[in-house]
Amino acid sequence: MSSPLIAVIGAGGFIGSRIVECFHLRGWAEIRPVVRRASALARSSRFNLESRIADARDQRALSAALSGAEYLIHAAGGDDATILETVGPVFRAAQHAGVRRMVYLSSASVHGQSPQPGTDENSRLRADQPISYNNAKVRAERRFLYLRARGNVEIVLLRPGIVYGPRSSWIGSFADELLTGRAFVVHGARGICNGIYIDNLVHAIRLALTADRVDGHAFLVGDQETVTWRDLYEPIVKAMGMTFEAIPSGNGSRSDASGFERLIRMADSKLGKRVLRIAPRRLRNAAYEGLSAWFDDPPDRSAVSKGPEVPRVADLERTLLQTCNWKLSSQKAERMLGYFPQVSFQEGCRRSVEWLRFAGYPVVHKSE
Amino acid sequence: MVVSACPDTDRPVNIAVLGCGAVTSIYYAPALLQLELSKMVRVAALFDPDREALLQVGRQFPSARRMRNSKDLAGADLAIVASPPKHHAEQTIEALRAGVAVLCEKPMASALPEAEAMAAAAERAGGLLAVGLVRRFLPATQAIRMILANRMLGDLRSVACFEGGPFRWPARTPSFFDRSQGGVLLDIGTHVLDLLAWWLGLPQGIEYEDDAMGGVAANCRFLLHYDFGFRVEGHLSRDWELPNRYYFDCARGWMNWTPMEPGFVQIGFHHAPFTLNAELHQNSICFARPGTGRRGINFEQAFVAEIENLVQVLRGNASLVVPAVEALTSLRLIHQCLQQRRLMKIPWLAESEETFARVQARGAG
Predict the structure, then answer these.
(1) Which residue of chain A is at minimal alpha-carbon distance from B344?
(2) Residue B1: inside a domain
(3) Other beta carbons less than 10 A from residue B294's beta carbon
(4) Which of A105, A329, B91, B219 has its Cα between 20 and 30 A from that of A84?
(5) Is residue B73 part of a domain?
(6) Can you give the CATH number for the domain in which B310 is found?
(7) ipTM of the predicted structure?
(8) Domain ranges of chain A
(9) b vs e for A53-71, b when ≥16 Cβ sit within 10 Å of the residue's Cβ?
(10) Do B64 and B161 share a domain, yes or no?
(11) How many domains does chain B have?
(12) Nearest to A170 by CA among A157, A154, A155, A189
């Protein structure tokens, strides 16, 4: 790449700020952070970069912000409405600015938090999943491809799973939960964590910007290793001077567990979704809330923390994630993008713990 | 020497507000509205080159005239300089030359020479220059000062202060992140170092590092060494939510303060099974004995107290809580920090990134 200009929408966020940091410090490209409001410039302002302020829903402001950019990385987050409302303005602004290719950070959650075995990029996407974020991402992908078919900007969709690393809420928020006595896991956190260390995602983004014959394609990207949620959490638990066994787990009695599993499967299965869809909203909500309520009044957690007594409620997302039994494959990305994770899971965890120390968490355990 | 600019106690002090950005609309405007009700002040004039900002604040003070420029101070007794820091020196010195007292928002200036010029201008003009280090008006910071000065918990052994979180200040423009504006140290650090110097005096040694790599720092750490045998460890951030606490370890016990709770301090005694979570109240007399009066003021009310202090000084009834010369002290500490700054170890950077980061950091401000 000969120093092209790459604009990053959402440069103030966890992923966006590492994209800026990585591309700039490695000299991969000239980078232009684009943020929604001035206050989001705190991280990218550590560098001497020319940043722009533009709301990703404001096509006119965005067109000016993207002026001269050859490539665009759309890493802006937001609620479901924002995810969808940014699609049209971002695409049209990119087209107006003459952007050649855009990489859109979608999510592996378009396949659900607990995808069926066999799921890959060819699996049919559904926009009627129980978690609305998934549906928003599915619809956003569809809209981008629709606009691509009628426009000039090439699009590559990346579907990372659980993006962890420095500043990730999967790391920081879990440490917060541990320190305030609110931490808990589902089923011993034995489910598969379809994680990707942030730098591996940035690597995939770089490849997606320039690879040939990938226009209009979607790619699942993840770490190489197959790991569980416990594998991800354990280094954080150790770093906080605690033991994983002391964290309450949603392992009730055997009958509870099997009932729970049935409910999970029902919520995630085709039949289950159909049943839940036709059920009255109140009943449907009660079914999902039932999953959450199952975690109220957890077992004694005094060994974990002496933090405030608060009931912990497993939301549906956490429940589904931590009972996942399918490792999403990055084979398509390997084949078409030349993707291979640059950072091992163990190293990613080590850097995450070191970030906790950097960020002021009371890390007592030396990371391995 | 301070010239009494408004000796007439019956007349409200006429105030010109220079800068109608976030700090004015969030803090100064409500404080001024409250003081207008008590007839202590009158907002006579407003200035901001940003028309929208001027209109927004102007709606709250319909009788205030719109100034043509920042020098248009006719009729003002006191100017509140709340513009971006790069304008502080120029606007403050102009006001002082015009015989107008000044309350300058923190940081007093972006660079030490500018601040020194401001203090010198005040002295030459015999004028009044206060700096908006508003935390000195909080009940908790005053209580901490008193507890430390009286060694109520014994000799101080160490202090740790962690403050910051994701940057949420509703800055209107990116100019907040200009290199000329400084990073987190010149922002939150101005308050923190002012308080530390106010509580503990000046340190004999300083170590400082931050994460500016060609721009302005989002994170910084400092160590202040004192000859008395204790040291202060500080960590400030605009990046990630820090514990936001000041912890004082003393020979007989400890003290904790959370900046979000300006009316509380926590005190514990070593080996004692209890902690005192103290809410600060004003003194009162009850049946001829000392008692608990009204709750201490909160952060918003501290701005009222700050302006009131100036009004009382102008009327010859009080002395300044934050005179420019004291604000200069903390600014000198900041200057010392920046003089010896080095890049923090950023543990997630790859080797190649770290190498380039060091090159960039050498030129960072």
Answers:
(1) A358
(2) no
(3) 9
(4) A329
(5) yes
(6) 3.40.50.720
(7) 0.89
(8) 5-172+194-224+327-343
(9) bbbbbebebbbebbbebbb
(10) no
(11) 2
(12) A189
CB contact under 8 A, B242 and A360: yes
Asked if the Cβ–Cβ distance from A25 to B171 is below 8 Å, we say: no
B72 and B193 share one domain? no
Separation of CA A193 from chain center: 12
d(CA A198, CA B126): 58
Residue A295 has pLDDT above 70, yes or no: no
The yes/no answer on whether domain A5-172+194-224+327-343 falls in CATH 3.40.50.720 is yes
Residue with tokens 């690597």: A203
Residues of B within an 8 Å Cβ radius of A: 162, 166-174, 176-177, 179, 183, 211-219, 235, 237-240, 242-243, 344-350, 352-354, 356-357, 360, 363-364
Q: Least CA distance to B358: which residue of chain A?
A: A25
Rounded Cα distance between B147 and B157, Å, is 14
At B65-123, the pLDDT tens digits run 999 999 999 999 999 999 999 999 999 999 999 999 999 999 999 899 999 999 999 99
Pair B146, B55 in one domain: no
The answer to whether the pTM exceeds 0.80 is yes
Q: Are residues B113 and B176 in the same domain?
A: no
B43 is in which domain, residue-wise? 13-134+303-322
B336 in the same domain as B273:
yes
Question: Same structural domain for residues B89 and B172?
Answer: no
* Chain B touched by A40 (CB under 8 Å): yes
B166 and B18 in a common domain: no
Produce one character per residue of A339-352: b if its CB has 16 or more CB atoms within 10 Å, e if not: bebebebeebbbbb
Residue B224 burial (CB < 10 Å; 0-12/13-18/19+)?
buried
Nearest CA-CA distance, residue B332 and chain A, Å: 23
B21 is a domain residue: yes
A290's CB contacts (< 8 A; 6+ apart) are: A263
**Peptide bond preceding B107: is omega within 30 degrees of 0, i.e. cis?**
yes
Q: Which residue has the tokens 């912000």?
A: A65
CA A58 to chain centre: 24
Same-domain check for residues B45 and B163? no
Strands A195-197 and A162-164: parallel
Kindly state whether residue B336 falls inside one of the protein's structural domains.
Answer: yes
In chain A, % helix, strand, coil (3-state, to 5) comes to 45, 10, 40
Residue with tokens 């890390």, as numbered in its chain = A363
Cβ of A39 within 8 Å of Cβ of B171? The answer is yes
